[in-house]
Specification:
By secondary structure, the chain is mostly helical. It contains ten helices and no strands.
């Protein structure tokens, strides 16, 4: 799903990142709507609305920066920088979820960050650009969103988390998207819908994975 998303993000780079994000969020909401209509109270009932809100905000900002980075720098570099999301997750899990991270894992995380720096070093010598910074900021924000997912899976279903994410993500994305609004061509509209569908698949896989392991 993530591979398909990155290709579509690059292919549709005529549409600014906030526009891509809002189309993806609305598509996710449409896909989830039948399930939401069957049991809206059961899906949205929660004692932790703030946790959902913070998680959705981190996810929305992270996705926009992620799209922007993939639009503006070469795919190989953007992809390498996106890998730092996984590297951020372990220290955040230790800090926020109190999961144990041994010395071996800390060492491997350090090697991982060093590897990312080696990948981007040729361009970094010419100056570290704003898109590079956006990619790293995106990785950190999305890592925080993943930590939020892990916390929420303790007492919420996958469908509940996906639905909250789609609704709040649409609301958070809309004001920024309106500043760049343009209607897509029919072909591009179909591709934007495909981007949203892949986004749902990626989130579903991630949430299921987070609910099963550390």
């Amino acid at each position: 799903c993530f591979t398909g998303m990155t290709v579509l993000i690059k292919w549709l780079n005529a549409y600014p990142a906030p526009l891509q994000a809002i189309y993806a969020q609305v598509t996710a909401l449409i896909i989830l709507l039948p399930a939401i209509c069957r049991d809206p109270r059961g899906i949205f009932l929660t004692r932790r609305p703030v946790a959902f809100g913070v998680r959705a905000l981190c996810s929305t900002l992270g996705v926009m920066l992620y799209y922007f980075a993939f639009q503006t720098i070469p795919l190989a570099e953007a992809n390498a920088l996106s890998f730092t999301r996984t590297l951020w997750i372990a220290p955040l899990a230790a800090l926020l979820l109190h999961e144990r991270v041994g010395w071996v894992r800390w060492g491997l995380l350090g090697l991982g960050f060093a590897g990312v720096l080696l990948v981007i070093r040729p361009d970094a010598l010419g100056g570290f650009s704003w898109p590079h910074a956006a990619a790293i900021a995106s990785a950190l924000l999305l890592a925080m969103a993943v930590i939020g997912v892990k916390s929420l899976t303790a007492d919420h279903s996958t469908l509940s988390i996906l639905s909250w994410s789609a609704v709040l993500g649409s609301l958070f994305s809309l004001p920024i998207a309106l500043l760049h609004w343009r209607w897509p061509s029919p072909d591009d509209f179909a591709l934007l819908l495909a981007l949203g569908a892949l986004s749902v698949g990626a989130q579903l896989s991630y949430i299921r994975g987070m609910s099963e392991g550390d």
